[in-house]
Amino acid sequence: MSIDTRLEAPAVSPAVRRRAAVAGRRKRWGNPLAGLGSLVWLIIVVVPLYTLISSSLMHQDEALNGDPLAFPTNPTLDNYSTVLDSGFSTMLVNTAIVAASTVAIVLLLSVPVAYVAVRTRSRLSSLAFRTFLLGVAIPAQAVIVPLYLLIGKMGLYDTLPAIILPTAAFAMPVAVLVLSGTMRDVSEEMYEAMSLDGASPLRMLWQLAVPMSKAGISTVAIYTALQAWNGFLFPLILTQSEENRVLTLGLFNFQTQFGVNIPAVLAAIVLSVVPIFAVYLVARKALVNGLMGVGGK
């Protein structure tokens, strides 16, 4: 007598088969609602960009009376020539100096502050850290008058440092908040291993915390650069001469008592966006990783 040693397949319930079929269809077709939402968001982002670029190629009368969504009938680069001939290069250099200097100051100060806040366990350090973060809740508009008086007393009015220093000060709280969260991702075992090897706190900062926090540092650098590049209030209140004018104030060059040169304004916006957009394209991966909180992993 032979014995059938074949194993019978376990019975699959109808509910399991239905779930497997639904999962297969989702895998095949994806998520249509997510795709539709992405398409709507893409339209919301692309349409203003298209209008910005197309209108910058129009003549003034066409920009005022034509359809903003229509492609220019007679595209022209005269608006860009007008912008470049109105001192755009000087304003671009000033804005780049302000952005680079602000980023340098913020990184130079916020990295050690965040490291001390993470590595020091005392109540005084915790209190100082929380007090420091109160700067996030203070708007620049609330302190612009005393800040104006302080800048005047220091003899910095109508200089680029008058823009750089307040911009860096208001960027510091967010920078410390981001960097402290990133540095907390560094495992305690790594710090203890370096400490057993005789490493000083300064060495642990530059050889462990900083390399493991590159994503957070990149995030802070890009955020600070954007804030400095797009800053308007401090340049408006704390400077007045043409040689210290930045890009955000340069838009006033195309406004007269008789109207606004709309295509020239839009052309200036396009030219001012290109440098910071290029920086974003280079560092976008580090920015996303830093915002997701995986800088130390």
Report strand %.
Answer: under 5%
How would you sum up the global shape? Answer: flat
| Discrete helix count | 14
Alpha-carbon Rg, integer: 28 Å
Number of strands: 2
Query: Secondary-structure element sequence?
Result: HHHHHHHHHHHHHEEH
Give the helix proportion (percent range).
Answer: 55-70%
The residue ranges in which pLDDT falls below 50 over 5 or more consecutive positions are: none
Strand order of the largest sheet: 1-2
Mean pLDDT: 81
Report the span from N to C terminus.
63 Å
Main sheet record: 2 strands, antiparallel
Summing up helix and strand content along with how strands pair, one would put the structural category as mainly alpha
Please give a structural write-up.
The chain has 297 residues and is an all-alpha fold. The protein is flat. Helices cover 70% and strands 1% of the residues. A hairpin with a 2-residue loop joins β1 and β2 (259-260). α4 crosses α14 (262-291), α5 (88-119) runs parallel beside α8 (160-183) and α8 runs antiparallel to α11.
Give a quick summary of the entry:
70% of the residues lie in helices and 1% in strands.
